[in-house]
Predict the 3D structure of the following.
Amino acid sequence: MRHLIVLIFITISTCAFAQQVVVIGDTVSLNLTGYSGDIQWQESTDSLNWANIAGAITSPYQLVATASPSNKRFYRANVHSIPNCGTYRSYVIRHKLVSSTASVVIGNSFRGGTVFYVNGGSGLIGATSDNVATTYGCTYTVTGATSMTNGVANTAAILSNCASRPIAASICDESVVNGYTDWYMPAYNELLLFYQQRAFFGGLQGSSLYWCSTEYDQNYAWAIQFWDGTMVHSYNKNYWTCWCRAIRAYGPIGRSNSFTTLDISQTIELVQATVTGQTQTQTPNKCIGSNVTFSVSTIGEPPLNYQWRKNGLDIYGETTSTYTRNNLSLADEGFYTCQVTNVCRTVVSDNDTLKVIQLNANAGTDMSICNGFDTILNGTGSSNYPALSGVITYAWSPTTNLSSYNISNPTANPTTTTDYTVTITDQNGCTSTDVVNVFVQYPFNNERICLVTVDTVTWKNKIMWEKTTGVGTNSYNVYKEVALNVYNWIGTVPYNDPSFFIDYSSQPEAYANRYKIASVDVCQVESVKSYYHMTMNLTIAAFGSTMGLSWTHYIDASSSFQPSMYYIYRGTSPSNMQLLASVPGSVTSYNDINVFNVYYYMVGVEKASGCNTTKTPTYSFSNKKDNGGLVYISEQNNINSNILTIYPNPFKESATIKFNNSANSKFLMILTDASGRIVRKEEQVSGSEIQIEQNGLKTGVYFVQLTNESNSYRGIIMIE
C-alpha cells in the first residue's frame, strides 16, 4: 500500500459547515455573528487563492451565485481591529455550483436540508434533525388527510380540521431552517422514500416510529417503524407519541413556485487563521495487471472530505482517505493527488507518480524440426522501463528435453510436437509469457488412394489421391504390385504437382493392377503404404451373336469405397462410347445379345463423393475391349445399328443426338439420371436428329433411350 501523508493543523473551536449545493443564479446570503470590528468578505474557487469581494463589508451580505472554472466557490470573512486579537478569519463556507436543479442528486446538502428524492429538476429535501416526539392529534376527528403521496395537502387538511396544538403537523409546518418556512409533514410514500435514504441523515431514532401525515380513520393514523420500514396504522392519533421529521420540496412540485433565488445563511464563529500543511511524496512502480492503493494520513478538525485526482482531474466517486486501482493498465499511469478539505481549509498532497511496468516476452517464431534433430529456442524480453526492471530472468516450461530451462536460448530436442512457454521476470516481480511451437515432423501415415482408373486419353492406368494439407508432406511415392503382396516403386509426385500418376508401363488390356501410395515428409522419411486399390480388367467371349462381357471387381482394400453399380459402355470407336446398361455392384458379367457389328466395350464405376476439392462425382473405367473377330458383320446389320451418335459429349448448354430413322418413324425419348429416375420424357419424336438442352439439369451422367415398336436406341450423355 502506498501512503501519502497530509498533515492539516487547524486551530479552531468547531467546524460545522458541510459543502452546500447551489444553483447558479441563486441568491446567497452570508451572515456573520459574534464579532466586533471591520468585516471584509472574500471568495475563492479553489480555497487556496482568495480575493476580496468588492463592497462586501456588511453582515448579512447578499450576492448572486455565478459559475466558476472549478464549479466551486468558497467564502470567508476577515475581521480587523479586534482589541488585543489582531486579525481573525471565519470558517469557510463551501459551495458546489450546478447549472440547474436537474444536477442535484440524492445526498446533496441543498436548500435547507439533505436531498432524499430527485425527479428531474424537482425533488424532496429532509430536515437534518428530528422534530420533537408528539401526537398526531384529534382523535374521533376525520381531518381528510388521506393522501399517500401529497404531504402538503395532508398537512393543510390536518391544520384546518384539528385545533389541537402542538401536534406533529403544526410542528413541521412552523419549522424555519436556513430561512426556509415551507416545511411540511410527509405523506406515507414521502416518508417511505426518506426511510430508504436514511443513511444520509443523522439523529434518527432507529428503534422508534415516525408519523406520516396520512390518517387511517378518525382514530388512527399511519406510522412507519424505522427499525424495519414496516407501515402500521394501529396508533391512536391522540394517545400515542411518535417522532416526526419535516420535509420540503424544491422545483415545480413544491408548496410555493415563487422561489427564484436561494437564501443560504450561515452563522459563523470566528477562528484564528492558523493553518499549516505538510505532504510526503512516494513514487510507486507497479506491474501491469496488478493493484495499487494510495492513502493519506490526516490531522485536522473533522469532518474531513477527500477527493482523489489524476493529472489534476477529479476521479469520480473516490472520496475516502484511500484509493485503490485494480488490474492496472498503461492508461493508469499519471500523477495522483488527494485534496483534503474541512470547512476551514483545503490542502492538496504532493504528486505521487504512478509508473506501470509492462514486460514483453517473445519466445521466437514457430518452427519445424525432423524427428531426432534439435533446435535452439530464441527467447527475448523487454520492458517499457528498462532501468526500473533491471536484470530480466528467464524460465522455460516444460523443462524436459531442454539443455537448460533458465536461460534465454536453450537447446530443445523434443520427440513430439511441443509448445514451449517462456516466462520473463524483472526485479519488481513483473512477469510476461509467450509461447513457441516446435513441430516435430513425422510422415503422414493416413494418405489414401481415392480411385484408380484407365485413363481414357492415354489408355494407361491412372492413380488419383487427395492431398492432405498442413502435415509436412514433401512428395508422394507410387507403388505397383509385382508379385503377391510385393510392391515396387514406380514413381514420385512432388507435393505441389497435381495429385495423380499415370503408369505408362501398365497394360490394362491384359490384366488388372493393384496400387499403393506413401507420403514422404520434408525430412525425406516415408510413411507406411496405403491400402491398395485394384483396377478392373474387361474380357469378352462370343456365343453366336451374344457378346459375353466379364470383368474383375474394382477393389478398395480399405472398404471405404464399394461400387453400388457397374455401368457398361459400348461404341463403334473408343471415342464415342455410350451407356449400354448397368448391373448391381455384386455382378461382374453382362450379355449383349443380337450383336452383328464390331463394337468397343468398357465398364465403369462412379464414386459419388468425388476425388477433387469440389467433390463432384468421379468415375473409374476398365480397359477398353472390342469384339473384332468375334462377330459376323454384314452391311445390313451395320445399317441397322442401334447406336446413338451424341455430340458434343459431354456438353454444357446443348447436345445433338443422331440415330438411324430412314423410315421416319415415331419414337418415345426418355432421359434418366444415374439413379434411374426419369428427368425428361418426350413422345412422337420423328426424324433422325433431336436436340437436348441443359435447361436446369444438374452436372452428371444421364442415360438416353429412343424406342418404338420395332427399334430401340440407347446412349450415355454427360453434362459438365
Notes: Residues 449-626 form a domain with the Immunoglobulin-like fold (CATH 2.60.40.10). DSSP finds five helices and 59 strands in the chain. The helical segments are 151-161, 168-173, 188-196, 386-389, 635-639. The longest strand covers residues 72-82.
